[in-house]
Amino acid sequence: MKMRLVFLLLTLVVLVAARPKAGPKQKCKSGPVDLVFLIDSSRSVRPHEFETMRKFMIDILSTLDIGLNATRVGVVQYSSQVRTEFSLKAHAKLDTMVKGINEIIPLAQGTMTGLAIKFVMDTAFVAEEGDRPKVPNVVVIVTDGRPQDRVAEVAIEAREKGIEIFAVGVARADMASLRAMASPPFEDHVFLVESFDLIHQFGLQFQDKLCGVDLCVESKHGCEQICESSPGSFHCLCLPGYSLNEDGKTCAAIDLCAEGKHDCEQICNASPGVFTCDCSAGYKLNDDKKSCTMIDFCSFGNHSCDHECVSVLNGYHCRCQEGHRLLENGKTCQAIDLCAEGKHDCEQICISAPGVFTCDCNAGYTLNDDKKACTPIDLCAEGKHDCEQICISAPGVFTCDCNTGYTLNDDKKACTPIDLCAEGKHDCEQICISAPGVFSCDCNAGYTLNDDKKACTPIDLCAEGKHDCEQICISAPGVFTCDCNTGYTLNDDKKACTPIDLCAEGKHDCEQICISAPGVFTCDCNKGFKLNKDKKTCTDMDMCNTVKHGCEHQCVNTPGSFYCICPEGQLLQEDGKSCGTCKSANIDLVLLIDGSKSVRPQNFELVKKFVNQVVDSLDVSAHGTRVGFVQYSSRVRTEFPLNMYHTAAEIKAAVMKVDYMEKGTMTGLALKHMLENSFSESEGARPLDRNIPRIGLVFTDGRSQDDITEFAKKAKEAGITMYAVGVGKAVEDELREIASEPTEKHFYYTTDFSAISTIAENLKLNICPAESQGEIEVKDPCACESLVEFQQATMSSLEQLTQKLSAMTARLEQLENQLLSKK
Length: 823
Description:
- Residues 34-210, 588-763 form the VWFA domain.
- This is Matrilin-4 isoform X4.
- By secondary structure, this protein is α+β, with helices and mostly antiparallel strands.
- Among the domains are: 30-210, Rossmann fold; 586-767, Rossmann fold.
- Helices cover 24% and strands 26% of the residues.
- The chain is built from 18 helices and 48 strands.
- A six-stranded mixed sheet has the order 3-2-1-4-5-6, sandwiched between helices. Strands 45-44-43-46-47-48 form a six-stranded mixed sheet, sandwiched between helices. Strands 7-8 form a two-stranded antiparallel sheet.
- Helix 11 (601-616) packs antiparallel against helix 12 (648-656).
- The radius of gyration is 60 Å and the shape is flat.
- The termini are far apart.
- The relative contact order is 0.04.
């Protein structure tokens, strides 16, 4: 009756399992996949739970199309270590794969999930282990606990390599760790179940992720027990204990005992689809209803055995404890004395116990780790002594001694240092420093120890150069003082010396120039004067009559010097001697030309012609007018400085060779460059005290992209006359801000480049009015009205001075004649 109920229950299970949506064993319709199970076999996974995990893997595999050209599967288990159970290329069939899973032995250690993911990424998914290119890599991690190492970083690395990770947590698993492992979206890749018994739920969901349409679910398959899908089809299967009939749908109970499908240890009794176990004679069935245990006859009494009763199949025998031997009666035991029988290897003393022995040592010795040999006890080495310095050992005893330089006290333990200095047993000249049994010598401050390490020599800091006196060092043992040479005085720092400057202190009687040397002086005269015989006073020299002055027109003497003047209508040239017309008036002219993108190449050629028109109006030479050319856009470039070319032809040729820059319009940057560089003496600008006019001419066609205010103002404050020329989209306000006052005479604008030649002509009029050829009224051919008035006033003053000088010259000649007549 009981067996019948069991059979009915199994039949019900079969019918439930046969429902289309009940079991996971429907073949997957997905393409090829390389799938690795990563199984947690830590000690927290109990044996029956591991069996559930094993069945879980087999159930999922049953749904997959297994094969070397279809789905490949590998299994890796981990705990504190990681082990490959079989690789992706190991099995081509499901049955051998299932056999491999059933043979897995759990590791039962810690939970190093991060280490396991790293292992799978680097070792499992490689070509040598069966990984295929362009085939999806999938990992199913099953774990029941929190990882003992870091998983987030290695999981990210694995996902970046294209590995899709499913994380299945059971019972105690940590959801945060599962989400750190799994691929997104987490709702499709993270599963947490309450126990291993519910893990099959994941199997259903996992199948949905990998498989397509399931014909077992979508059609009337007619399978009695289990329907299993395959790509585009299905077939029927039966539960364990049943076989599929020839109709391919119904199932018949099988004899599990006859087929060997049981786990009885001895006897299997079969029923349809089930079995029971039994045992052979002399054995009894255990509580697991499978294994058998031999009947223990000793449990019924010890049968007069002296020590132990040992059961055997259908009987028993007596056995003695270790160290005893069984006598002939088979029941009595006798102790074995190994020491007395000489069956030992003790070095010194053997102590016997039944069947065993232990070794010991004589006084003063200790037993070695091998428990047989003896070693003398070294009380010195063990620190079991009270010697202050040296311990001398004998087996179990010791004596004391002292280091060199010490003597042993009466207590035979402590030591006293021998003080050779105190005992006068040394030959140091000054200081004796004692150490136990030895001494060393030293010297008093200001002395150094000689090479014999005994005598001392005074330290001469001056001779050794260990001083900072500027001139004279005076030495005493270990110290020094400073002094100065004649004509110098010692500073307050008592080291440096300062020359005594009699000229600066006014301690001289020179009329004009006093030349100082330390503690002494000599007299000299200004240029144009000569020193008298008293070496102190000076007499003026008539430079116009005594030197070759080189004046082209007239030389005018001044005290100690002279200057040249020109006739009316001419100007003194840069050399200060020759005279010239307005055409040869000197200026330093820097042309600041806009080479931005908006100018365009064809217009830039017109600008260069404009520049050469201006150059034509100038008297260019090394001592006359100098011209520099600077081009700017987003940056600034000096095309040639003021001192490069000395003829108009050279300048015009250089202008025509200038390359167009393009890009932006940084006029402020160009003004800064002109002020700081172009008008520097290193680039050819003449010194300000020469009074050579400095002119800057800015040519632009658009608004500046930077601020011009600061350097436009600084240029004019530096005495540079600024002209601003604008074309096209040039901003009038910026041009006026650049131009010098009056703005109307220094600011020009035209709407297009074709009109710039007219501007060039107007510029000529302002730079040199003499070139106007009657277009404007000119009072003097060499300058504008203000320059003429200034020159006329200057010439009038010079004429008055000349008249006075002529009178003085006549008076001097008269005095000289009188002196000559007296001689």
